[in-house]
Amino acid sequence: MWIDTHCHLDAPEFDADRSGVVERAVAAGVGMQVIPAVQAAHFEAARALAHTHGLSYALGVHPLYVHRAAPDELEQLDQALSRWKDDPRLVAVGEIGLDCFVPGLDPVLQEHFYMAQLKLARQHGLPVILHVRRSADGLLKGLRRHEVVGGIAHAFNASDAQTTQFVSRGFALGFGGAMTFDRALQIRHLARSVPDTALVLETDAPDIPPHWLYRTAAQRQAGESSRNEPAELPRIAQTLADLRGWSLAHTAALTTANACRVLPRLGALCAHG
Q1: Which end of the chain is more exposed for a tag (fewer CB within 10 A), N or C?
Q2: Cis peptide before 95 (omega within 30 of 0)
């Protein structure tokens, strides 16, 4: 079985055929997905989708959404984590983190939300799913200040030294569509070189399409779709298998075991079917 450790199934891009997306994923062998919420307004939807389709979810406020957060957004997160603390499908606090790529974001506000959510993850005993975009040092600074029980650094790309620090803190590293591009030299280097036990797979669907789905801005404007979906995961995984010299079966077994280790509730879900 494959696990897509990061899929925004609640995104509007899936409104027309969400059940079909799940069915195609299952047919491709993707038996589990993690749906990370990005703001409080999405918490109920993420949870409902997980229960409807036998999947899992995480709750958090994404760094690209903190500027539109309600005054009580963090309080809503705390309340939701308390309300659903016994829900086996709630596997992490996420997607949280820092984004130093998109221009115009308030770094102080981002850091406030990131630090507060690390504290909530620690308080509720949950791992975290981290958004890492040119922000590895800032994320590690937060993890040194507020130690959590590990989790996943999603869409991972960082230096070798930063990578070692994430791994030493119990994090798995998420690799997806970006890895399939020949020009993604550092990502492909990391996919080849990080410890076996640190590798998990993801799509970030509907985003980060693999190279065979990529469309230029002009193509997208002309109506061509570049929508990614979890059914693409086994083909994405073939890139990882090729980079490591593994069989596809070994890649599936290893990445599934890693995901279940760093997200323990996910492991329990998969064990019970």
Answers
A1: C
A2: yes
Collapse the DSSP code of 150 into the 3-class scheme (helix H, G, I; strand E, B; otherwise coil) and give the result.
coil
| Residue type at position 264 | P
Report the alpha-carbon distance of residue 132 to residue 138 in Å, rounded: 9
In a 13 Å sphere around the CA of 242, the CA atoms on its Cβ side amount to 10
pLDDT at 195 over 80: yes
Find tokens 């937060």 and name the residue: 142
Phi, psi of 223 (to 5 degrees): 105, 0
pLDDT value for 235:
98
Q: What are the DSSP calls for 45-60, one per residue? A: HHHHHHHHHT-EEEE-
Query: 272 falls in which pLDDT band (50, 70, 90)?
Result: confident
CA angle (198, 200, 202) in 5-degree steps: 150
Question: What distance in Å separates the CA atoms of residue 120 and residue 7, rounded to the nearest whole number?
Answer: 22
Predicted confidence (pLDDT) per residue in 210-239, tens digit = 999 988 888 887 888 889 999 999 999 999
- Tell me, rounded to whole angstroms, the distance of Cα 246 from its chain centroid: 23
Extract the runs of DSSP E, i.e. beta strands, from 45-89. Answer: 56-59
**Cα–Cα distance, 40 to 95 (Å, whole number):** 11
Distance CA 241, CA 252 (A): 9
- Of 227, 269, 253, 237, whose CA–CA distance to 9 is shortest? 227
Placement of tokens 């705390």 in the chain: 78
Phi, psi of 56 (to 5 degrees): -140, 170
CA distance linking residue 13 with residue 193, whole number of Å: 34
Rg value, the chain, Cα:
17
Pairing, β 151-154 against β 128-133 = parallel
